[in-house]
Design brief:
single chain, 733 residues, alpha+beta, D-amino Acid Aminotransferase, Chain A, domain 1, globular
């Protein structure tokens, strides 16, 4: 059998002896090694030996060998000793093999500079002497002395040099040293790997590399592809991208709530085109201010049994190296951790699933979740959170202000409210003074833009509000009576609340919840006081404050960034407080709890597919403790201040990179695909994954399924109330 390596000058043949009773099989020979796959010689009835060797020719003077012992009854191999390398200058030193009872001896080297014809003559001469070489096409040779037992020999021809090696099995050599060899133990389990303290690879900060257009053009496609892949894997999606050179995804865009901003975001994705209302049934994306009931009902109901593929965290990286023009060193890797992609792929909630096949050209998506009222409806949010916290054994009124849902003046729950009102009326503060006993009354349904919200200083005002049902703007509804937080933390003696954003995706029957790390403060126009119930003092909604004469007098658009607020804390707070590290994590945890409370209810029909951006409103008390006020299904996207001009478009772009881009990817074969798509800034990710229904939700599923908050009739009523609110809002537009 002839073997030729990458270098033709290193080819050689191997000739086994056929006369001996040997079980040598096919021989795999490469340039630098001689390997016997089934090289078995029989030193005794109870023991067999394999011999696996790497015998290098005169080019390299090293020998590696490995001994293997095999039980003759089973034929299964078991390692006796680890692979070792014994340097030697010739082929006579085989100490390691002698310990295993195997001897190798170089017999002769002859016929230097002889041709193949001379080799034939040499072997034919041996045959005429009475030696049986065999009938195979290969030329066979034998041992010089076949009487010696347990032997086999090999003739190796490299170029015109002939080397004959002899393999002889003998009894194991006893150790003559006073130090006895210790038999290697049989490994029954994998030992723990102790990693060496490897030297850290120096990386360049991404803020330095991102200035280089050449590096950006190479790294951006890699980062985008890697992120899209991981997002699809977390939803159990395997996306087939259309190959048609003239294919476009279609989107329908409804009116209202700064639809021009949505159009602007989608216009940067050249593979999308807008369609009118007549083609809404063919649109891959339907974006509306409120739920489009027909679109949701047209989405298919999915029945998918998911199997978790991995729970390991994944790091988004790029192998594009950056070379600083001012440095003479080699190009270095770039650390892209600060881009924020690990907020998702290295989250504790992140998992990957076995994929289901989908064609993106046939997929449809709506920006509203079917039963979003479980979060956005004040009454439903209260009941869902109350039920969930009861399961956890915690008090929901450590997160929500004390709340009562009252259907009418005669409702028994109103008696509970009266008892609470009386308790606060009789209480005194630390200084022995009677505090104000203020309550805020909100419509349980049909509330938007601050409509129907009243601040009441006494119980008579509460009763009058209940008796005034139906309200002129909100119609007939139930009421949420909530304790007013009478000691809020103030900014320049004015009240404020915090607007945060959450994203919920429902893809392929997987619900995932995200928290956006940036938000803003909405300030009141008037100085805070409990002596008046003026809306411009107590309600910070834009829809209310924009009618004040002092709107925009203190802050541009009555908005403050987190950094502005931190500076205020540094200058005016008695203690040192870090808003990002101390307060924001509490807000994030509350938002996560809202996802956990409703994940089994918000998409009950498992529509394929939907997502939604929610607006969360929080209030800080004088101790800087956050309180959840409400959740909005239609958060304001108007750019009423320079800070919002920066944060709102970035938030929407980030949401599209999570919800749209992994599914509706840029077609690489499209004729209109611009060249150099990697050019441009690499976008940051500021959404953090805080909930995955198949990871975090599995532990809660059994408990929540047995806890019914609303019956079917109440859910239907809540859905109808949401539809009525939508129609009234569209009439105002």
């Amino acid at each position: 059998m002839e073997f030729v390596s990458n270098s033709t000058r290193n080819s050689f043949k191997l000739y086994p002896n056929s006369m001996l009773n040997s079980t040598f099989g096919e021989l795999n020979v490469t340039t630098n090694q001689l390997v016997f796959n089934e090289n078995i010689v029989i030193p005794s009835k109870n023991e067999k030996y394999y011999y696996k060797s790497r015998i290098r020719t005169g080019l390299t003077p090293r020998i590696e060998r490995r001994g293997i012992s095999v039980e003759s009854q089973t034929g299964d191999g078991e390692a006796i000793s680890p692979r070792t390398s014994i340097p030697c200058k010739d082929y006579k030193s085989h100490t390691g093999l002698l310990d295993q009872g195997i001897h190798i001896r170089k017999i002769n080297i002859s016929l230097k500079n002889e041709t193949r014809e001379k080799l034939k003559t040499y072997l034919q001469k041996k045959q005429k002497e009475g030696k049986n070489i065999g009938n195979s096409k290969e030329i066979l040779t034998e041992l010089p002395d076949p009487a010696i037992s347990f032997r086999d020999s090999f003739l190796i021809i490299q170029k015109s040099k002939i080397s004959i090696f002899e393999l002889q099995a003998r009894r194991k050599r006893k150790c003559r040293s006073s130090l006895k060899r210790v038999e290697a133990p049989i490994i029954t389990e994998i030992p723990k790997i102790h990693r060496k303290n490897l030297q850290k690879v120096e990386k360049v900060p991404v803020k330095d590399a991102i200035r280089d257009k050449e590096w950006t053009s190479r790294s951006k496609p890699q980062i985008t592809k890697s992120f899209n892949t991981q997002m699809n894997r977390s939803n159990g999606l395997a996306i087939e991208i259309p190959t048609d050179s003239f294919f476009y995804y279609k989107y329908y865009l409804g009116k209202g709530n700064n639809s021009n901003l949505i159009k602007q975001c989608l216009s940067t994705r050249w593979w999308w085109i807008r369609v009118n209302e007549e083609e809404i049934h063919n649109a891959n994306l339907v974006w509306t201010q409120w739920k489009d009931k027909k679109t949701l009902e047209s989405l298919p109901k999915l029945l998918v049994n998911h199997e978790i593929d991995s729970k390991l965290a994944v790091t988004i990286t790029t192998n594009a190296r950056y070379h600083s023009p001012q440095s003479h060193t080699r190009p270095k890797l770039v650390d892209i951790t600060s881009l924020g992609y690990n907020l998702i792929t290295r989250s504790k909630s992140f998992i990957t699933l076995k994929p289901s096949q989908y064609k993106s050209a046939e997929m449809r998506m709506h920006n509203k979740i079917e039963h979003n009222f479980h979060l956005a409806n004040k009454k439903a949010l209260f009941y869902n959170m109350k039920s969930y916290y009861e399961i956890l054994g915690e008090d929901v009124f450590n997160v929500l202000p004390l709340t009562f849902h009252v259907k009418s003046y005669d409702d028994p729950v109103f008696l509970d409210f009266e008892r609470s009102y009386k308790f606060y009326e009789e209480s005194v503060d630390d200084q022995g003074k009677k505090p104000a006993n203020m309550w805020i009354v909100k419509p349980g349904e049909n509330s938007n833009r601050g409509n129907g919200i009243i601040v009441c200083a006494n119980i008579e005002q509460v009763k009058n509000e209940l008796e005034g049902n139906p309200h002129l703007k909100t119609g007939k509804h139930t009421f949420i009576i909530q304790k007013y937080i009478e000691r809020p933390f103030l900014v320049n003696k004015r009240k404020f609340d915090i607007r945060c954003f959450g994203l919920v995706t429902c893809f392929n029957s997987c619900l995932q919840g995200y928290f956006y790390s940036e938000g803003y403060l909405r300030t009141a126009s008037k100085q805070f006081t409990l002596q008046a119930t003026n809306k411009f003092i107590h309600l910070t909604n834009d829809a209310v404050q924009k009618y004040s004469d002092d709107y925009g007098k203190f802050e541009n658009g009555n908005k403050m960034s987190y950094n502005d607020f931190q500076r205020y804390l540094d200058n005016h707070c008695e203690r040192s407080v870090n808003f990002i590290e101390e307060i924001l994590p509490q807000i994030k945890n509350i938002i996560k709890r809202t996802y956990e409370a409703v994940f089994l209810k918000i998409d009950p029909n498992v529509r394929g597919h939907s997502f939604e951006v929610f607006g969360y409103d929080f209030l800080l008390d004088s101790d800087l403790k956050p309180w959840l006020l409400e959740v909005n299904t239609n958060p304001c996207l108007e750019l009423s201040s320079p800070h919002l001009v920066r944060i709102i478009p970035s938030m929407l772009e980030n949401a599209f990179r999570i919800a749209l881009d992994p599914v509706f990817q840029e077609p690489s074969s499209h004729f209109k695909r611009p060249a150099g798509m990697g050019i441009g800034d690499i976008p940051e990710n500021k959404f953090e994954l805080v909930f995955h229904s198949l990871n975090d939700g599995e532990m809660l599923k059994e408990k929540l399924e047995n806890k019914r908050v609303f019956d079917a009739k109440e859910i239907e009523e809540l859905s109808e109330e949401a539809d009525e609110l939508q129609e009234e809002d569209e009439d105002d537009i």
